[in-house]
């Protein structure tokens, strides 16, 4: 199996964000709605890359470090999303409903993709290295 490299994931996330941003430009949507969806895609991509990099780094560390990074990552996402919502609420160039829907949907998209790629990367590494932690986890979930 081919191990997923970090740079490939970053390129994939940015490519998906550009497809989302420029894909909505082809529809006959008003400018505030296009701005809202573009901002949502860009912020979700940024959070997805930050999440992937931090969790990929923390995966092989101790449980205390991993969960510290995991919960710190969640706090970071909530802070960025809260600041974005405040900015959108105060700015008339964005449509509030489409911005919130876009932030929610795109955040789920990039978070799910990041988790899937991390687990694929870890399972490939465990096959190559014979990692016993993943085998023990698989044995307890059966």
Question: Which key features would you list for this structure?
Answer:
142 residues; mainly alpha; 5 helices; 83% helix
Produce a short descriptive summary.
The chain has 142 residues and is an all-alpha fold.
Task: Walk me through what this model shows.
This protein has 142 residues and is mostly helical. It has one domain. It is built from 5 helices and no strands. 83% of the residues lie in helices and 0% in strands. Helix 1 (6-23) runs antiparallel to helix 2 (31-58) and helix 3 runs antiparallel to helix 4. The longest helix is centred in the C-terminal third of the chain and has 34 residues, at 96-129. The model has no long low-confidence stretch (mean pLDDT 83).
Secondary structure elements and pairings:
Elements: H1 6-23, H2 31-58, H3 63-90, H4 96-129, H5 132-141
Helix pairs in contact: 1-2, 2-3, 2-4, 3-4
Q: Total number of helical segments?
A: 5
- Total number of distinct structural domains: 1
Overall residue-averaged pLDDT value:
83
Strand portion: under 5%
What is the radius of gyration computed over CA atoms, rounded to a whole number of angstroms?
18 Å
Query: First CA to last CA: what distance?
Result: 24 Å
In sequence order, what are the helices and strands, one letter per element? HHHHH
- Largest sheet: number of strands, sense, barrel closure: none
| Structure summary, number of beta strands | 0
Content-based structural category: mainly alpha
Overall geometry comes to: flat
Ranges where pLDDT stays below 50 over 5 or more residues in a row are none
- The proportion of residues forming helix, as a percent range, comes to over 70%
């Amino acid at each position: 199996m081919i191990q997923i490299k970090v740079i490939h994931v970053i390129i994939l996330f940015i490519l998906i964000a550009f497809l989302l941003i420029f894909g909505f430009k082809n529809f006959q949507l008003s400018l505030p709605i296009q701005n809202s969806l573009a901002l949502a895609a860009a912020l979700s991509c940024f959070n997805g890359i930050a999440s992937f990099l931090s969790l990929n780094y923390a995966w092989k560390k101790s449980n205390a470090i991993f969960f510290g990074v995991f919960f710190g990552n969640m706090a970071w996402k909530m802070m960025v999303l809260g600041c974005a919502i405040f900015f959108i609420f105060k700015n008339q160039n964005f449509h509030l409903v489409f911005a919130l829907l876009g932030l929610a949907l795109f955040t789920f998209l990039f978070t799910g993709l990041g988790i899937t790629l991390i687990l694929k990367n870890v399972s490939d590494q465990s096959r190559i290295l014979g990692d016993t932690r993943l085998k023990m986890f698989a044995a307890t979930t059966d």
